[in-house]
């Protein structure tokens, strides 16, 4: 498999996999469920969702693994003669891989184990938002990267940070995840085009 295909394929699989496994968990959730009253992680609670939690948690673990490979595949954006860009790209990869690992761990420790789940969830938001900021900074050196995509990367990072500060507004998390999945998917598509 060529390097540019890794980020493309893993971006599509991570986004689609997350959505499919979330939907499978949702249709088995027997309580009222809404973006205004629930975290997405509530779908992974085996106490509240005994027949569907396994789907959500598998989806989170799978998404975390695929995102690790997605961030590794971004190495094809490297410039040979631009040290600053290379450092920012490596920081993108490092923070992205660490954030993806935290995502994986938040699936292993679902929300019914609140303290440890909260630790991994907070860590994934902090690390991924940092990775997204560095990705926009690293990719701005490429003329072929659409500027709207860089803006979406920064917006994604801002949304992730807002989620951390506005933790009582459930809908912000839902919007953040949608923006995050959109950025990853579109960056994967742009990676394939290059």
Structure description:
The protein has one domain. It contains six helices and no strands. Helix content is 72%, strand content 0%. The protein is elongated.
- Can you tell me the overall shape? elongated
The share of residues in helices is over 70%
CA gyration radius, whole angstroms = 17 Å
Total DSSP E strands: 0
The unreliable regions are: none
What is the rounded distance between the termini?
15 Å
The total count of helices amounts to 6
Question: Topology of this protein?
Answer:
Blueprint: H1 3-26, H2 53-73, H3 83-108, H4 114-139, H5 147-165, H6 170-193
Short description:
The protein has 194 residues and is mostly helical. It has helices at residues 3-26, 53-73, 83-108, 114-139, 147-165, 170-193.
Keywords:
mainly alpha; elongated; single chain; 0% strand; 194 residues
């Amino acid at each position: 498999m060529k390097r540019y295909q890794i980020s493309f394929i893993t971006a599509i699989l991570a986004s689609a996999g997350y959505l499919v496994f979330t939907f499978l968990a949702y249709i088995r959730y027997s309580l009222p469920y809404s973006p205004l009253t629930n975290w997405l992680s509530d779908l992974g609670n085996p106490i509240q969702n005994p027949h569907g939690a396994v789907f959500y948690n598998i989806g989170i673990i799978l998404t975390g693994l695929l995102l690790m490979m997605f961030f590794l595949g971004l190495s094809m954006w490297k410039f040979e003669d631009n040290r600053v860009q290379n450092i920012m790209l490596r920081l993108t990869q490092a923070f992205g891989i660490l954030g993806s690992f935290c995502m994986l761990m938040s699936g292993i420790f679902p929300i019914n184990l609140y303290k440890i789940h909260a630790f991994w969830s907070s860590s994934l938001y902090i690390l991924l938002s940092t990775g997204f900021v560095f990705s926009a900074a690293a990719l701005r050196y490429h003329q072929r990267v659409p500027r709207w995509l860089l803006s979406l990367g920064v917006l994604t990072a801002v949304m992730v940070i807002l989620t951390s500060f506005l933790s009582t507004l459930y809908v912000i998390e839902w919007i953040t995840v949608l923006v995050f999945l959109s950025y990853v998917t579109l960056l994967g598509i742009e990676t394939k085009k290059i």
